[in-house]
């Protein structure tokens, strides 16, 4: 069972109450958000699908992220997170999509985009996609990924509460 089981159960219950299917678009977590949700029996009534788009090519092919966005802003950016979430929504039966793209480390960081930086996107049918930036202090790869899953689930709950 996922260390995020309680949060995942709350997300599933909130989506079910609102009659929403959910899709994930994950880069730095490699499917961990979808796994946290689908660890729970009965999640198939809410979880439509998960896109693991680790490469830029996958982001473009599977989610419709534009090469212009990736060239201008990079994979780890608000713009890419937004396009990932919107693309997951458009390419699924879901009414809600969450995306994550970041630098999990231990390498790959820079002054502008340090290890621990993650951009989150949330798209809800009929609303403008929203993004959220977080830089995790614990820059251990596993900690960044686990904290990203937790934060994504919390952001979904917050968005559904509005």
What does this structure look like?
- It holds the Pfam family CinA.
- InterPro entries: CinA-like_C, CinA_C.
- This is Nicotinamide-nucleotide amidohydrolase family protein.
- Keywords: Hydrolase.
- With 162 residues, the chain is α/β, with parallel strands linked by helices.
- The radius of gyration is 14 Å and the shape is globular.
- A hairpin with a 5-residue loop joins β4 and β5.
- It has a single domain (5-161), classed as Maf protein (Alpha-Beta Complex).
- α1 (5-18) runs parallel beside α6.
- It starts with a helix and ends with a helix.
- The protein has a five-stranded mixed β-sheet, with helices on both faces.
- The chain is built from six helices and five strands; from the N terminus they run αβαβαααβββα.
CATH topology: Maf protein
CATH architecture: Alpha-Beta Complex
- Count the domains: 1
Helix-strand makeup class: alpha/beta
CATH superfamily: CinA-like
Taken from the alpha-carbon principal axes, the silhouette is: globular
Beta-strand portion reads 15-25%
Q: In this structure, how is the largest beta sheet organized? A: 5 strands, mixed
Short description:
The chain contains six helices and five strands, in the order H-E-H-E-H-H-H-E-E-E-H. It has 162 residues and is of the alpha/beta class.
Helix-strand layout with pairing:
Layout (H helix, E strand, L loop, with lengths): L4 H14 L3 E5 L5 H7 L8 E6 L3 H8 L3 H7 L4 H13 L5 E7 L14 E8 L5 E6 L5 H21 L1
Parallel strand pairs: 1-2, 1-3
Antiparallel strand pairs: 3-4, 4-5
Helix pairs in contact: 1-6
């Amino acid at each position: 069972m996922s260390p995020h089981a309680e949060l995942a159960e709350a997300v599933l219950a909130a989506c079910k109450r609102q009659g929403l299917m959910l899709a994930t678009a994950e880069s730095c977590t490699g499917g961990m958000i979808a796994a946290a949700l689908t660890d729970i029996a009965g999640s198939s009534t809410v979880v439509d699908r998960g896109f693991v788009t680790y490469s830029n090519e996958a982001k473009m092919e599977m989610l419709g992220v534009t090469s212009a966005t990736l060239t201008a802003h990079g994979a780890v950016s608000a713009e890419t997170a937004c396009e990932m979430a919107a693309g997951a929504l458009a390419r699924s039966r879901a009414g809600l999509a969450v995306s994550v793209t970041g630098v999990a480390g231990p390498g790959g960081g820079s002054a502008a985009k340090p290890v621990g930086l993650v951009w989150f996107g949330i798209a809800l049918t009929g609303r403008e996609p929203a993004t959220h930036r977080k830089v995790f202090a614990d820059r251990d790869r596993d900690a960044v990924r686990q904290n990203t899953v937790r934060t994504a689930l919390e952001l979904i709950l917050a968005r559904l509460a509005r």
